[in-house]
Each structure stands twice: as structure tokens, then as C-alpha cells.
Amino acid sequence: MKVRDVLSRDVQVARPGDSLQQVAMRMRDGDFGFMPVADGDRLVGTITDRDVCIRGIAEGAASSAPVVEYITRDPHTARADDDLKTVLETMGSRQIRRMPVLDKDDRLVGVVSLGDLSTRVKEKYAGEALEDISRP
User: Fold this and answer.
1) What is the pLDDT of residue 129?
2) Cα–Cα distance for residue pair 22/45, rounded to 1 Å
């Protein structure tokens, strides 16, 4: 099985110039806490609801501050044609809950998440990876 078989393609994407407030509102309205940040279809980082709160607001950032100032740069990524078992092992060992997925040309094509894995993957190693990711 390949990553492309389980990834979510309908993903909300933040742009570098979006404000912290715009991103927070989209997260609230969509009931999610993670967004890839891309310039066009090129990934520049990721942002979580925790990043907005801890890196941004708690440090005194204005709600109008550009999200690019608070992103995680160079996040771990997967390739759409990667073997799912390998990606699951990486997610488990590094305790990664969501991972942007790129195509062979480095374009953002989706996200693979803990939720995707728990609902779409039946293999034994999926359960092991989920246990590792959830370990305190």
C-alpha cells in the first residue's frame, strides 16, 4: 500500500501572508488544528493551533501578524508514492500525528494523518505505529 492510497487530498492550506487570526478562524470553523503552509503548491512549513497559541499569541503577537513568522519550517514529509509501512514507522518513531505529502515534483498534494490511518488502514503495522505515536 502507498501513501497516496490513504492521504487526504481535500486539505485546507494556509498562505505565508495569512494572519494568525485568519488561520485560527479557519481552524475553528473547520474543526481541525493543523494546516500546511504553502506558497502556491510549494510547501514552506506547517502551523498548528498550538503554534498559533504558544509561539504567537502567548509571545505577544498581534492577531494580524503573518502566519509565516510562526510556522514550523522543514517539517517531516512523505511522498505520495512512498510505501505506507515505511511512513507509518517514521510517524511512530518520531511521534508525528500529521505529515504533509508531496509528489515527485515537490508539490503539496495532501496530508496523511493519524485519523486517516486509524480509519483507512487495516494492516498490523498500522496499529503498532498508532501506539507509538500516542505514547506519552
Assistant:
1) 59
2) 17
Q: Is the pLDDT of residue 130 over 80?
A: no
Backbone angles phi, psi at 92, to 5 degrees: -65, -50
Q: 115: phi > 0 → left, psi -120 to 50 → alpha, else beta; which? A: alpha
Kindly tell me if the per-residue pLDDT of 11 is higher than 70: yes
- CA distance linking residue 58 with residue 50, whole number of Å: 10
Strand order in the sheet with 98-102: 78-79, 98-102, 108-113
Most confident of 22-36, 79-93, 121-135: 22-36
Task: Calculate ∠ Cα 38-15-92, nearest 5°.
Answer: 50
Please state the φ and ψ torsions of residue 129, each to the nearest 5 degrees: -65, -40
Locate 67 and state its grid cell. Answer: 502566519
CA 39 to chain centre: 15
pLDDT of residue 121: 67
* CB under 8 A, 24+ apart: contacts of 25-30: 27/52
